[in-house]
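May I ask you to comment on the folded chain given beneath this request?
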Amino acid sequence: MNLFRPPPPMFGLATLVATALLCGPSPSVGQAPEWNEPRTLELVRRALEVRRSLVVDSLLQSYRSDARGFVYFFLDRNDSDERTLVKTDQVALEVFWRAPDETRQRIVGLRDRKALPTNIQYHLDHLTVVQDEFGDRIRLGDGDEVESVPHPIATDGEAVYDYRLADSLTLEFGGGREPVRVYEVEVRPKNPDRPGFVGAVYLDRASAAIVRMTFTFTPASYVDPYLDYIRISLDNGLWMQRFWLPYRQEVELRRELPQLDFLAGSVIRGRFEIRDYRFNETLPDLLFAGRTVLAVPEAQRRAFPFEESIYAELESEGLESSVAMEEVTAQARQIVRDRALSGLAPLRLHWNSVSDAVRHNRAEGLYLGVGTTVRSPLETMLRLHGGWSFGREDPTARAELTPRGGDPATRLVAEWRAPRDIGPFSPGNRLFSSLASLAGEDWTDLYLVSGVSVEHRLGPAEGRHLRLGAGWEDHRSAGLTIEPGTDLRRPVLPVHEGGVARLDAALAWPRAVGEVDLTLVGGVAHLDDRVWGTTSIGATYARTDSWQTWSMRLGARAGATLGRERPPQALFLLGGRGSLPGHAHRDFVGDRYWLIEGQVGRPVHAPWVGVHLLAAAGESWMSGDAGLPPNWSGRTDAGIRGSAGVGLDLFWNVVSLDVVRGLGPDGEWTLLVGVSPRFHPWL
């Protein structure tokens, strides 16, 4: 019999504000907390008794609830913050429990959308929720990912783990309800070289029940050699003033090739909320007779009336990790004193992109390169790369040091004769540029950079953040290495040579004004007796309707180089591929510019074919009486130019085929074949 249908849970961590209080057994100011203090172990033992008592509590004989969740599969570049969505799944579950410890779940709704082709099949526990805090042995991926890791609040917990009382927290919420006080207990394995839990358990101060768990695992826990990490956050809610039951969970798994640090890793991220609890209903015995996870027929799953769009959470949250997920790693590193937590091999081959292995252009000729990644026991990542330019018969080298296990928030970089393109507009990915140069057309204007630099990011990668950078670089002109008489006769533009000291900053502000993303970039530099500054602003508006029937993208950029003695490498080049197609390539030169671009498209036969219209308008010019640098060609006062065209999006919008006409007295028709910009860094 259904005795009652209670209101929403009294407590959910997602809606609470946590404030730390130095109360109760928290360590006094200046006193470092000790591991395995008697009062901490006593608290852990109380928590163990509470876990056991739930199965014999006469007031709770059964429950059923509903769960809604999203599972994302995406690619995560190894050397940057860029993420590319591959597939989204939306899940609806019915969740059942019956005393003493029987659990069942039924998938009643399941639909997916693919942004890129994939045949990924998830383990069932990626599509379901955790009901019993994993039991006494934590198992993931049907044992293919993690197998039999001891739970910290289990009978043998004290033999396996160390415990430390980190803090006493008061979790406050509105509505006139009493605040909930919890103890934060940090957990680490006694032997970090064995499979184990690393993280924290938050215990209700009144009852010692588990309110929350945030954790990852030791490297030895991972069965799959492809696993980089698994991060988990489980939140419970208080029901009927007595029972702490599942409320929210997040799980994130990241994989890479075990022998090769190349291009990107794959990430599975699941977020679920459990709601609408109904207690002490009579549940049929037949329900608990079969498998622990059931599913209605596929047609019924796909027809389930979901309350939200499949992209609802993606539109509001994006692909960035939640605060809880970010805290898991930071907390775990602190607990294990910066020991390595990744399951990947400490030494692997490395390439940032395909063009790091092989490329061709008129400034380098044929280039071949190879690299390696070294991860230290202190979670510091060192990426080394070297190569040889057969055209100029000269080596190129790069070293990148990233503290904290590859977190790109801070980077130290050293380079030797690394090629850099005069900008700011990329003509496309480097692989296509190499293929074009083999066919007789080079889109780049390279110069060589040697030096050291440091970059630090303040704020989350996918949210509003500020990047600060500083460095010293030696700039050298590259010169033409292609043999005379070939088709690559366009000269390599010379630069002002010498040592450059620079300071720069970049602010990224997603959703700064409604749906508009803003970027602000500025910097100052010094070369010989020349001092100059650069500043630019960009705004982007992107919108896709919930049914994916049309998409729109608008962008506007403008910039200026300030200073009478600015060097050629600080100028802006417009025209042709990457800025104003249909005009001569990089024919417009200036120390000021603006550019507006727009594209509207819709699928015709998704995901194979879509159509779009595109247009652009812009201008670059020299301020004052400044003219072209010596040995440069181009126009400094051509005025406003534009482009307009139509194109096809092919194969999940990966490949584009555009026919564009340049607008103006010197415009011409041009055919452009390209790859989606989100893949340019990989090529």
